[in-house]
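Spend some time on the protein that follows and explain the fold to me:
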Amino acid sequence: MFKLTKALATAALALTVFAGFSSTAQAEDVVKQARSNDVASEYVLEDDGDFYRKVGVHTCQITTGVEEFKISRHPNDSAMVYFMKGGDLWVLHNAEIPGHGQCPKASKKMILPDIAKAYSKMRYTLVNTIKTTIVNAAMSTQQNGLFVAWDNTHAVFQANNVADYLMNTCYGTKGKVYNTYVAFVLTDDNKVIKVKGKSPEKSVVDNNNTYESLQEFKAANKVCTDY
């Protein structure tokens, strides 16, 4: 009986130690390298939501309460980083290196509130190709589903009553069907908006058909197949 109890106690201790290691592993800081034309060399998000960038030898705090962040890889994007704070989407712009070894002022701005979620992921997407005017897109829960796409400085396309959106994986790829559209947006009335990559103002709505999902739209229209 003693041997059994001791064995159980040892197993329980092992599980406790393992759980402790697992908890520590999940709470690690997130470190990402900055874009090549960024004043900062890297960004760090600590497990408590404190957000920093490294400028020279200095570690400079940007803000607190950050949930996640993404580095903009589009060379013409004036935003260096996109980050989630309080459920809202923010951008951080580049900065000039100040004198006397100080940290640069964090030029940040909230660009869209109440970002939607799907499968535990926040609905915002960065566009890395320089072949498009649009550098990022996001979906908010406002206005019964609000889709917004931006160029390097301001919003260039938006739609209300949106149920879903998908970025086009073959945008800019020669010989592929629908390669001039950077994204597809599904409205609440099952219509699809095809968002132009270089001229967002020329985006069009498919008024002749309705679709239950964007996957159905892609299959029916042979999106990204060869001409």
About this structure: DSSP finds two helices and 18 strands in the chain. The radius of gyration is 23 Å.
